[in-house]
Amino acid sequence: MNTHSYPSHVHLVEVGPRDGLQNEAQPLPAAVKIELVQRLQAAGLRHIEVTSYVSPKWVPQMADKHEVMRGIQRQPGVCYAVLTPNLKGFEAALADRPDEIVVFGSASEAFSQKNINCSVAESIERFAPVVAAARAAGIFVRGAMSCTVGCPYEGEVAAQQVGRLAALMKGIGVQHVGVADTLGVGTPLKVQRAFEAALQHYELHQVSGHFHDTYGQALANTLAALQLGVAQFDASVAGLGGCPYARGASGNVATEDLVYLLHGMGIDTGVDLEALIDAGAYISAALGRTSGSRVARALLARRAQ
Ligand SMILES: CC(C)(COP(=O)([O-])OP(=O)([O-])OC[C@H]1O[C@@H](n2cnc3c(N)ncnc32)[C@H](O)[C@@H]1OP(=O)([O-])[O-])[C@@H](O)C(=O)NCCC(=O)NCCSC(=O)C[C@@](C)(O)CC(=O)[O-]
Questions:
Q1: What is the ipTM of this complex?
Q2: Which of 94, 178, 184, 249 lies 20 to 30 angstroms, CA to CA, from 236?
Q3: Strand ranges inside 53-99, DSSP E
Q4: Within a domain: residue 6?
Q5: Residue positions annotated with a catalytic role
Q6: Is 80 in the pocket of ligand 1 (CB under 6 A)?
Q7: pTM of the predicted structure, to 2 decimals
Q8: Is 104 a pocket residue for ligand 1 (Cβ < 6 Å)?
């Protein structure tokens, strides 16, 4: 007997062009990134994290941010999101007219230091003027909360640390928070506890999940979040991704795998799975590797028969 009532629609945030490509050793031309975004939006994705306005010394893979943002043929109804860690990043992003900016903090102190070179409290001080400026400009502000179940430097992360960060984000006007399992070490009940901590400060429609699949738990963790009523998730086409400051973590849950799960449960996403598989095949070929999506591999093998 099914005792859970699942949402009828899930909103997907495609993070492949940003999270997916920020960790690639081999530089990809901006034209390939632009083509990827075009293919993702053609597949029905309505929310795409395109790039980051971070220091090119820290993340050289995102140095072509202006070229990529300016090269996309925008479709009405698609939200183009970008990461902005500080005012310098936000001001640089403004010229490229993002629909949403993402400030990114960490539930663990050590990861905050490694990733953005400041403590959690200092990060909030940096984000506050960014949030105020974005909201004044009518740009939606999402907050990514890294390391909500585990940290590469500190190990297990307590739910209270997630609650603390969510409260700080709420306090400066962040409108939505993403509960991220940066390392991909989480399991369903731990993930639910992290969400419950975030939900003490945000409403259900203001939280989303971001799961890396290092230990193969991302779909199970998605199901656990769905059972709490969470209806927005990040995913990365072909399972690309990883954070340069979370060594050993694999890519995000593959968008193809997530769409297959959701459609199989009767949950609408608005995404055309076949077109998404083609977008995944395109970027996998550009990177010279097999897709990290099991669903894509299975469906491509079936097509080839
Ligand atoms: C945050 C900073 C910039 C602080 O870096 P910092 O070195 O502490 O910054 P600073 O203010 O001392 O400035 C130092 C230099 O950086 C420049 N600078 C300063 N800010 C910017 C900027 N915005 N854009 C471009 N340049 C910038 C600044 O102008 C200066 O240049 P210099 O005078 O030496 O030539 C740095 O640590 C950084 O860029 N970190 C990148 C972190 C990152 O992109 N991580 C990956 C994304 S987060 C993620 O993947 C996790 C997520 C979201 O997916 C969820 C999850 O899974 O957990």
A1: 0.97
A2: 94
A3: 79-83
A4: no
A5: 243
A6: no
A7: 0.97
A8: yes
